[in-house]
Amino acid sequence: MLSVFLKRAADKQLNIGIVGLGYVGLPLALRFSEVGFKVLGFDIDKNKVSKIHDGQSYIEHISSDSVRKAVSAGFSATSEFQRISEVDAIILCVPTPLNKYREPDLSFVLDTTDSIVPYLKKGQLVSLESTTYPGTTDEELKPRVESKGLKVGEDIFLVFSPEREDPGNPNFSTRTIPKVVGGHTENCLKAGLELYSAVIDRVVAVSSTKAAEMTKLLENIHRAVNIGLVNEMKIVADKMGIDIHEVIDAAATKPFGFVAYRPGPGIGGHCIPIDPFYLTWKAREYGIHTRFIELAGEINTTMPNYVMKKIAVALNEREKSVKGSKVLVLGISYKKNIDDMRESPSVFLMEKLRDDGAKLDYCDPHVPVFPKMREHKFDLKSVSLSPEIIKSYDCVVLTTDHDKFDYDMILKNAKLLVDTRGKFRQSVPNLVKA
């Protein structure tokens, strides 16, 4: 089985199945198609399937031209999971959110696995890319796969290879970001390495699926902890009348031992706000309380409260209350220059403003209409910016610093501008740094 799989991978003769065609799955599907593999995408969202058939992209930083090119090369999509039997490699790129108790929600992974198990066959590879706690692949996926009578490592190959996407970053692509791969057995690892080496410039082997799962968590916990630190430093510096961004710029001149992280209104995206809780939950099984990680998470999740207080104080100084004030939020995606809204701190801040009675609008050139979200609901469309529009608001809050904003115009015309991103370094009466 292994030798056949390795040869077909090397010859680009494998049929690739990508399950979940979102911010991770679609770029990966396009990359496999680009190098000559036949790719079949799977998604329960029939709108995505329809758009792919029409050669249209539904993700801003992925062009429709790249989708059309892949479709013309044989890329197609379906919502029919019985077609899993047509592919040789099955790569799972489905969400792993948290439930309302901040515990891992593996329902997408497990439901998807249960959907494909009836159609698995000998010689296939199953790779999980969704971020999860160490042990998920071995403890949850392996028993389900083997329930079909397939022996992992002999009849079928099982690997974990964490996704590493950075939407909107022009310096890295699916091809150039190194890929970590861990297999349940040595044969699984060999199959995984051969598969991903065909499309990724550098593939890094680790000893097990657990090591690969932990690698992904460490990467994002590292960021979460350091962002929590710099957010706390911002609060302290603000009380002392010190510009934290000036301090960070100065510290970053040190050529060793320091990495510059920037504070903001909170943290967002599909990884940093979520991944630490996967490890803290699993660690409790071993009697370990991850205090350091949880403290960073607490600091980061309370940053919208800090910004809200700064807005309220600034309005109060101008003899206005939050209730009844017209407030414009600039940027609602979780980071600059993308359309990804997942876990965006801007949305949490918007909810606090709305709950306190603010008359709320937003402007985001990447999000023209507030999207349907599972936990947040706003019936809003992005407003167009002009000097007159800016002047009509009691308060303008910069929460995501997109390059498309005209910052000079905004600063010149805002009655009150609250900057949560350190975009403005001036000291002017209408500017509040939060």
Q: Outline of this structure?
A:
The chain is α/β, with parallel strands linked by helices. 38% of the residues lie in helices and 12% in strands. The chain is built from 15 helices and 13 strands.
What order do the helices and strands come in, and which of them pair?
Elements: H1 2-10, E1 15-19, H2 25-34, E2 38-42, H3 46-53, H4 64-72, E3 76-78, E4 89-92, H5 107-116, E5 125-128, H6 136-146, E6 157-160, E7 179-183, H7 186-197, E8 203-206, H8 209-239, H9 244-251, H10 275-284, H11 291-301, H12 303-317, E9 326-330, H13 345-355, E10 359-363, H14 387-391, E11 395-398, H15 407-413, E12 417-419, E13 431-433
Parallel strand pairs: 1-2, 1-4, 2-3, 4-5, 5-6, 7-8, 9-10, 9-11, 11-12, 12-13
Antiparallel strand pairs: 6-7
Helix pairs in contact: 1-7, 8-10, 8-11, 12-13
What would you say this structure looks like, in words?
By secondary structure, the chain is an alpha/beta fold. The protein folds into 3 domains: 2-206, NAD(P)-binding Rossmann-like Domain (Rossmann fold, 3-Layer(aba) Sandwich), CATH 3.40.50.720; 217-299, N-(1-d-carboxylethyl)-l-norvaline Dehydrogenase, domain 2, CATH 1.10.1040; 302-433, Rossmann fold. It is 38% helix and 12% strand. The chain has 15 helices and 13 strands. The chain has helices spanning 2-10, 25-34, 46-53, 64-72, 107-116, 136-146, 186-197, 209-239, 244-251, 275-284, 291-301, 303-317, 345-355, 387-391, 407-413; strands at 15-19, 38-42, 76-78, 89-92, 125-128, 157-160, 179-183, 203-206, 326-330, 359-363, 395-398, 417-419, 431-433. An 8-stranded mixed β-sheet has the order 3-2-1-4-5-6-7-8, sandwiched between helices. The chain has a 5-stranded parallel β-sheet with strand order 10-9-11-12-13, covered by helices on one side. The mean pLDDT is 96.
